[in-house]
C-alpha cells in the first residue's frame, strides 16, 4: 500500500491492496494485547518523533509491555 503514496504511481486498487487495507483497519480497531514485564529481562524502547507528536513502544522479549503517544 505504501507504493500508492509515491509520486507517479497509478492508483490501481485491487484485491491485494483491499486485503492489506482491511488487515490494517482490523489491527487499528482491535484492543492491544499487553504482556506483564519479567523482572530479570532487558527492555527495548522503540520511538518515533515528529514536530507535533511522539509515539513509543516498550517491549521485552518481543512482547509489548506498553504504548505511549
From TrEMBL:
<feature type="domain" description="Reverse transcriptase/retrotransposon-derived protein RNase H-like">
    <location>
        <begin position="13"/>
        <end position="69"/>
    </location>
</feature>
<protein>
    <submittedName>
        <fullName>Putative reverse transcriptase domain-containing protein</fullName>
    </submittedName>
</protein>
<keyword id="KW-0548">Nucleotidyltransferase</keyword>
<dbReference type="Pfam" id="PF17919">
    <property type="entry name" value="RT_RNaseH_2"/>
</dbReference>
<dbReference type="InterPro" id="IPR043128">
    <property type="entry name" value="Rev_trsase/Diguanyl_cyclase"/>
</dbReference>
<keyword id="KW-0808">Transferase</keyword>
<dbReference type="InterPro" id="IPR043502">
    <property type="entry name" value="DNA/RNA_pol_sf"/>
</dbReference>
<dbReference type="InterPro" id="IPR050951">
    <property type="entry name" value="Retrovirus_Pol_polyprotein"/>
</dbReference>
<keyword id="KW-0695">RNA-directed DNA polymerase</keyword>
<dbReference type="InterPro" id="IPR041577">
    <property type="entry name" value="RT_RNaseH_2"/>
</dbReference>
<dbReference type="GO" id="GO:0003964">
    <property type="term" value="F:RNA-directed DNA polymerase activity"/>
</dbReference>
<keyword id="KW-0511">Multifunctional enzyme</keyword>
